[in-house]
Amino acid sequence: VLLVESGGGLVQPGSSLSLSCVASGFSLNYYVIGWFRQAPGKEYEGVSCINNKEKITWYSEPVKGRFTASRDNAKKTIYLQMNSLKPEDTDLYFCNAYPWPSADWGQGTQVTVTP
Q1: pLDDT for res 26
Q2: Do 94 and 36 contact (CB within 8 A), yes or no?
Q3: What pLDDT, in 10s, does the model give residues 79-113?
Q4: Per-residue pLDDT tens for 60-78?
Q5: Helix, strand, coil percentages, rounded to 5, for the chain
Q6: Is the pLDDT of residue 1 over 80?
Q7: For residues 21 and 33, what is the distance between their CA atoms, to the nearest angstrom?
């Protein structure tokens, strides 16, 4: 089972990025999928999650109103649209399935927000 996150980058405050999460070895379609971020030496921080059928979403307070999770089950891909990015959003971002972690953590995708 391999999770692959992509879409990170180096941007200025106020910019947007769209992250993607795909999996090999199992189908994401049957799982609640969460997005997490991790700063060096710190624990994973839950950012958002989306369930598999009703696509109900949850967001942590720091990102609420700025980030939007979505999924395309036909493409077996989970997305995290990140708008109005702030320097404090700088982190390595990961996805995983509930109960987390259901799969080994992937490499993550780096998001760096700097003036």
Answers
A1: 79
A2: yes
A3: 999 999 999 999 999 999 999 888 899 999 999 99
A4: 999 999 999 999 989 999 9
A5: 5, 50, 45
A6: no
A7: 9
Residues 101, 114: Cα–Cα separation, whole Å: 30
| Tokens linked to 57 | 């979403």
Buried b (16+ CB within 10 A) or exposed e, 88-106: ebbbbbbbbbeebebbebb
CA angle, residues 21, 22, 23, in degrees to nearest 5: 130
What's the one-letter identity of residue 102?
S
What is the distance between the alpha carbons of residues 47 and 37, in angstroms, rounded to a whole number? 7
Q: Which residue has the higher pLDDT, 76 or 35?
A: 35
- Decide: 8 and 111 in contact? Cβ < 8 Å: yes
One-letter amino acid of 84: S
Q: Write down the pLDDT at residue 4.
A: 94
pLDDT value of position 25: 82
SS3 (DSSP) at 20: strand
User: What is the DSSP pairing of strand 77-82 with strand 67-72?
Assistant: antiparallel
- As a whole number of angstroms, the distance between CA 73 and CA 28 comes to 8
